[in-house]
Design a protein that fits this description.
30% helix; 4-stranded parallel sheet; 4-stranded mixed sheet; Purple Acid Phosphatase, chain A, domain 2; 179 residues; 8 strands
Length: 179
């Protein structure tokens, strides 16, 4: 099974208020994100982390990664610089890319932390899964929500848990009335 998640920001206290996350403390948020992940992801599942795994944390990135089950793939985000410099943390990933083309069943998908206006295969049915914009309601959000086959994997939009492609499509349909 393939799962997708973006913008976890583990250890980042300020993201609680920035995103309006339903947690009192960063420790509560971290515990919920780790528990939600491990409740879904099995050891042989692939998880595509679309950037910003942890940020401004008092704990090391490897502290989090050691607790998360599954086969982890990192799509580098703007807050992953410290992660990329941590050899122990990097040993937990089977792949690290800025942009990645994957297949999920019969679907072709372009993964990137950043929302892209038009991607490879855009006119031939390919999908784009992204993060970065969290749950902001700005001009980028407004543009991305009208694009067909563009899916925001921000954890705050999906119950703070990794989700499948089909769940991303369903959630996007519920939020915007389109896919």
């Amino acid at each position: 099974m393939n799962y997708y998640i973006a913008d976890m920001h583990l250890g980042h206290e300020n993201v609680i208020s920035l995103d309006g996350r339903p947690f009192e403390t960063v420790d509560e948020m971290d515990a919920a994100l780790i528990a939600n992940w491990n409740a879904r992801v099995r050891p042989h599942d692939n998880v595509y982390i679309l950037g910003d795994l942890c940020h401004k944390s008092k704990k090391s990135p490897s502290w989090y990664l050691k607790q998360l089950t599954g086969i982890k793939h990192l799509i580098v985000g703007n807050h992953d610089g410290h992660l990329l410099k941590d050899a122990d943390a990097m040993s937990h990933f089977v792949s690290v890319d800025k942009i990645l083309f994957v297949k999920d069943g019969t679907e072709r998908i372009i993964l990137c932390h950043y929302p892209i206006a038009e991607w490879e295969g855009f006119h031939r049915g390919a999908w784009h899964i992204y993060g970065h914009i969290h749950n902001r309601k700005d001009s980028t959000y407004e543009y991305m929500k009208i694009l067909p086959r563009a899916l925001n994997a921000g954890c705050m939009l999906h119950g703070y848990t990794p989700i499948t492609f089909k769940e991303l499509v369903s959630t996007t349909q519920s939020l915007f009335g389109r896919v």
